[in-house]
C-alpha cells in the first residue's frame, strides 16, 4: 500500500513529501505574487484618483478665478451702463432730446449691440 501526501493548500494528493512541499511552496508563491499584484493595482488606482482629484482642484480653482474676472467685468459693465443711462436722462431732462450717430457698429453700446448688429449688417 502506497502512502499519499495530501496538501491542505492545494487540496491535492502527492506521491512524495517532496512533491507535496514543492506544490505548497509554489502555491504560496503564486498567492504572494497575486497579493503583490493586487496591492500594486490598488496603489495605482489610488494614485490615479489622487492625480484626477488634484487636476479637478486646479481646474475648479482656475474656473473660479475666471468666473470672478467675468463677474467683475459684468459689474463694471452694469455700472457703466447705469452711469451712461443716468447721463442720457440728465441730458434729456435739460435739453429734451439726445441724438447719437455713428458710422461704425462697434461704437453702439454693448447693451444695444445684439439688437442692432444684425440690422446694421444688412446695410453695410
List the keywords.
mainly alpha, two-stranded antiparallel sheet, 124 residues, 2 helices
Written account of the structure:
This protein has 124 residues and is mainly alpha-helical. It has one domain (5-96). It has two helices and two strands. The protein has helices spanning 17-95, 110-123, and strands at 5-7, 12-14. A two-stranded antiparallel ribbon has the order 1-2. It is rod-shaped, with a radius of gyration of 40 Å. The termini are far apart. The mean pLDDT is 88.
Short précis:
This protein is mainly alpha-helical and 124 residues long. The protein has helices at residues 17-95, 110-123, and strands at residues 5-7, 12-14. It has a two-stranded antiparallel sheet with strand order 1-2.
Write the layout of secondary structure elements.
Elements: E1 5-7, E2 12-14, H1 17-95, H2 110-123
Antiparallel strand pairs: 1-2
Low-pLDDT segments = none
Specify Rg, calculated over alpha carbons.
40 Å
Order of helices and strands: EEHH
Number of domains: 1
The total beta strand count reads: 2
- Biggest β-sheet, characterized? 2 strands, antiparallel
Class by alpha and beta content? mainly alpha
Distance between the termini: 110 Å
Give the strand content. under 5%
Helix amount, in percent?
over 70%
How many helices? The count is 2
Amino acid at each position: 500500500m502506497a502512502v499519499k501526501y495530501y496538501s491542505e493548500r492545494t487540496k491535492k494528493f502527492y506521491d512524495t513529501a517532496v512533491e507535496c512541499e514543492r506544490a505548497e511552496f509554489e502555491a504560496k508563491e503564486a498567492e504572494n505574487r497575486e497579493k503583490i499584484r493586487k496591492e500594486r493595482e490598488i496603489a495605482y488606482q489610488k494614485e490615479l484618483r489622487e492625480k484626477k482629484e488634484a487636476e479637478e482642484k486646479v481646474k475648479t480653482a482656475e474656473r473660479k478665478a475666471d468666473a470672478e474676472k467675468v463677474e467683475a467685468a459684468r459689474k463694471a459693465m452694469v455700472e457703466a451702463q447705469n452711469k451712461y443711462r443716468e447721463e442720457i436722462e440728465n441730458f434729456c431732462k435739460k435739453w429734451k432730446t439726445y441724438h447719437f450717430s455713428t458710422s461704425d457698429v462697434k461704437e453702439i453700446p454693448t447693451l444695444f449691440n445684439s439688437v442692432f448688429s444684425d440690422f446694421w449688417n444688412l446695410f453695410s
